[in-house]
Amino acid sequence: MKTRIEGHLRSFQENNRNRGRLLVSCPDQPGIVAAVSNFLYEKGANIVESSQHSTNPEGGTFFIRFEFECENLNEKEALLEHDFLAIAERFSMDWKFTYAYKVKKTAIFVSKELHCLLELLWEWQSGDFTTDIALVISNHEDAKDIVESMGIPFHYIPASKEIRKEVEEKQLQLLEDYDIDLIVLARYMQILTPDFVTAHPNRIINIHHSFLPAFIGARPYERAYKRGVKLIGATSHYVTNDLDEGPIIEQDIERVNHRDSADDLKKIGRLIERTVLARAVKWHLEDRVIVHENRTIVFN
Amino acid sequence: MKTRIEGHLRSFQENNRNRGRLLVSCPDQPGIVAAVSNFLYEKGANIVESSQHSTNPEGGTFFIRFEFECENLNEKEALLEHDFLAIAERFSMDWKFTYAYKVKKTAIFVSKELHCLLELLWEWQSGDFTTDIALVISNHEDAKDIVESMGIPFHYIPASKEIRKEVEEKQLQLLEDYDIDLIVLARYMQILTPDFVTAHPNRIINIHHSFLPAFIGARPYERAYKRGVKLIGATSHYVTNDLDEGPIIEQDIERVNHRDSADDLKKIGRLIERTVLARAVKWHLEDRVIVHENRTIVFN
Amino acid sequence: MKTRIEGHLRSFQENNRNRGRLLVSCPDQPGIVAAVSNFLYEKGANIVESSQHSTNPEGGTFFIRFEFECENLNEKEALLEHDFLAIAERFSMDWKFTYAYKVKKTAIFVSKELHCLLELLWEWQSGDFTTDIALVISNHEDAKDIVESMGIPFHYIPASKEIRKEVEEKQLQLLEDYDIDLIVLARYMQILTPDFVTAHPNRIINIHHSFLPAFIGARPYERAYKRGVKLIGATSHYVTNDLDEGPIIEQDIERVNHRDSADDLKKIGRLIERTVLARAVKWHLEDRVIVHENRTIVFN
Amino acid sequence: MKTRIEGHLRSFQENNRNRGRLLVSCPDQPGIVAAVSNFLYEKGANIVESSQHSTNPEGGTFFIRFEFECENLNEKEALLEHDFLAIAERFSMDWKFTYAYKVKKTAIFVSKELHCLLELLWEWQSGDFTTDIALVISNHEDAKDIVESMGIPFHYIPASKEIRKEVEEKQLQLLEDYDIDLIVLARYMQILTPDFVTAHPNRIINIHHSFLPAFIGARPYERAYKRGVKLIGATSHYVTNDLDEGPIIEQDIERVNHRDSADDLKKIGRLIERTVLARAVKWHLEDRVIVHENRTIVFN
């Protein structure tokens, strides 16, 4: 299995060896699109996708994302980034170039409920997720067999409130060892410490099993049942130190009715959780998500 | 227009002169369906629709709704209700017969935003809502022309927090004068007093412009925008004395994205509000909604 | 894995050892509900769910499904079915009792695309599908490893138009050997012969990758792309000898746009195919689907 | 009412007196975005929205839409268009500038079913549709009162197959008299002649009451009922001389089930028809729709 996926990654890298992306945010003013698109043109890059957004026609913040093809891109990275400095300075830009062939390394954290993990693995082995799932960390052993059967390292780290500090030290060491770019909490039911979260800004994606901001916190399906809602939902968001208050990347819902028990809601919800998390991770991996004032701009 | 609608109602009454409904709730135990369906059979009623629900297989509450056809039903009403007493007693039932030809009288309360009112009027004049819209009450005059052009009495009663008592006295008098069965708050932006609400249990339907329990209270679209949700919704519910906490009848959502301003959310939300309120009112008019422990059972 | 699932099945059988279902269709007339519910009551069965449908108030066909609990049901099967004959005759009924503890045996046919198979296996191992997946048959070997890793027999039978007869003989022998109740075509891309289909009326469920009746036949996503539709869909249906014309059990759609290539449609479609097929199979396993005049009544 | 809407239009024109749009399609090649965005920058235009699409990374067609703000735009129209010629020639562009303050004139054709017309009027009087609804043409008189009550000219032109030629002559005369930009067939149940259609390429929007390409032609709801579909839909498309085969602008669906009669499907379908047509018209009015090889690119 691992071999097959490595084949996927290699063929993806081959197909995308000239594919780059440029993300920019800056104070809105005339001339930004012209300046950046000129720059790319002069560097021999052909823009294949572009999206822009402005928070406010006047005095707001401007965001733009370009996806481009450029011959021998990997040899030009340093030059591109160096030469872009002049434009970046002129418009006071936050910016980054990313290169599709530099595949992001992902760590998945999971607990006993495996449906979100399985969905991610399934999308991954289908070739739809371009990432290297470098390891899976869990406080239970339920996922061990399936993860290892796919050739992915599995790390069992029992966790509890009392030993949170030690647990996180081990986790942080692993993240460093594996050079991780993205952490996905695929129903990992432990709270992370502020230090852990702060160290990974907009790089931890969680799935919450309600349409936030409804049912923040524990046991959302039980509370949804009790409230008698006619829709249940799921929300994927970047983790911040305000519980379930981080920037929302994606949400979806499913219809339920009076016949559905709290247990039924959980089962129905699994499908939404799986798809909502998978979409958010996919968009993140493709550098389509920008965070601004606790809201996300998703260029999809 | 009024003439055309009166034509609708008359033809509905004619088509439904033998159509009755029986709603029952009681402690769950064997034999209920058999007893009630036998009773209806012996009275010459043919069951055309039946739905049941049990909160819990053992020791729970059982709900059943029958819709039936019975020759000369209007002459048999008293007899039916009298003879049903024996069964009702045996099973400790809460129960009611309703008769489709006894069309419910509805009062619509509205403020300055007319989209929900217009949807209700539109469904009504299409013949899809079987009710007599007996009057419209508003604290503004915006709806006057359209309401009166349809031959419906319009009552303008300016309202504010300070004069709430006097306002409600006038409203209650009108509800009594017109013999109203159902009150629909079609974006009527005033809070009703506990006395007013208590006097109409499960007979006031409100539309709230969020997917409750998210964004309870004022300005939900502004708050939805600020929170950066990817879905907005609307909720129709019976009004109780806990603000926006009454039993939910129906909810729906629409997808939004980062380009939508708070004003866009309001516009997009209008469509959801209209359809969600219309569905809830329709189900109530057809006696499809039962309230149990602040949740609704909707037999649709 | 197999052990875990056998545990699921055993605990399901234990929990449902008193659970039966009765499905009836007959010419509509008064007294049916009364007669059947009385019968069940007298036999000591408590009705926990009932649904009915009539194709036409007058002179139509009436359908009813009861789900009931009855002490020591497995000892009473023969008696129930014998004693029901009198009622069945009186109302000219088609009828069957089924027993939840008699778990249906399912064969899954699959080709090279595994997403539908994987979804079924996933729902099954989660305990949501109450069936014994007795074997998987495929004309390719792609599914072999995953299927056998779950302890399910995998039969590789290469297929082509030329040898259809021999292939089907082998398949039919396996279906008989394993005593199969339900055949699921989980993207099995071969046409079945009329003899094969006729031998399994309403017992073969297929997933077609379009919202039928649009795009009947081959390559629906390519044709959907060419037509420029804004929605793509999937349809699960019972197989008949009219290609893609059998009774529809379930359909769903997903939104697409001009940016999506035919390949993108295929990827997006996989999610719909998986969920639509899984729902249809689940409803069939719970005896919720009745076929009437090439349409389905789904009591869900 | 007319006065109120004229107020809307005037305030829209005022708010948008500097708002222009540029739509371009041309063979794909590097440098297009740079050239056009430079041009706009040099002319003093600030890009507030841009969207692009390429049918194929290599050798395909490239589409781009800019929305921009430019001081004193109405004085610069001729200059802009003149100076753009050089770029247009260099890249072999099809292109057009449009000016938001030049409000399009719309004619609505309707028959006896008014729900789509009413939705358009409702969106219009809410200020959400920026168009001048210059006249309504109908082969029935049902819409007369409501249309005239809003101050819109209503033209009653009885129609039938036999007199199609004369009818269309009258209609064409009216379209010319009123200087119409867009024709909306809001459930106008007459076939237009090839001459009529050819004279208005991509300027006639129709609503078809099925999810095309399912149920092309007459009586789609009856056929949907008979086929037993679980979803019904509606499709808005530009009219071409192939019946119901024109480029699709928007589609949507609603879930139905076995209890819904053909008449119920019609009622449920009305809501979808209304919203699907309204969205398509809105996007057309905002110059968001480009037709390419019988498919639409919708930059929304």
TrEMBL record, chains A, B, C, D:
Enzyme Commission (EC) number: 3.5.1.10
Protein name: Formyltetrahydrofolate deformylase
Entry keyword set: Hydrolase, One-carbon metabolism, Purine biosynthesis
Domain ACT: 21-93
Active-site residues per Swiss-Prot or TrEMBL entry: D244
HAMAP family listed in its UniProt record: PurU (MF_01927)
Record-linked InterPro entries: ACT-like_dom_sf, ACT_dom, Formyl-FH4-Hydrolase_C, Formyl_transf_N, Formyl_transf_N_sf, PurU, PurU_ACT
GO molecular function annotation: formyltetrahydrofolate deformylase activity
Catalysed reactions, as listed in the record: (6R)-10-formyltetrahydrofolate + H2O = (6S)-5,6,7,8-tetrahydrofolate + formate + H(+)
Pathway: Purine metabolism; IMP biosynthesis via de novo pathway; formate from 10-formyl-5,6,7,8-tetrahydrofolate: step 1/1
UniProt xrefs under Pfam families: ACT, Formyl_trans_N
Name of the gene: purU
Keyword Glycoprotein included in the entry's annotation: no
Entry function: Catalyzes the hydrolysis of 10-formyltetrahydrofolate (formyl-FH4) to formate and tetrahydrofolate (FH4).
Similarity remark: Belongs to the PurU family.
Species: Priestia iocasae
PANTHER family reported for this sequence: FORMYLTETRAHYDROFOLATE DEFORMYLASE, FORMYLTETRAHYDROFOLATE DEFORMYLASE 2, MITOCHONDRIAL
NCBIfam families named in the record: PRK06027.1 (NF004684), PurU (TIGR00655)
Leader peptide range in chain numbering: none
Enzyme class: hydrolase
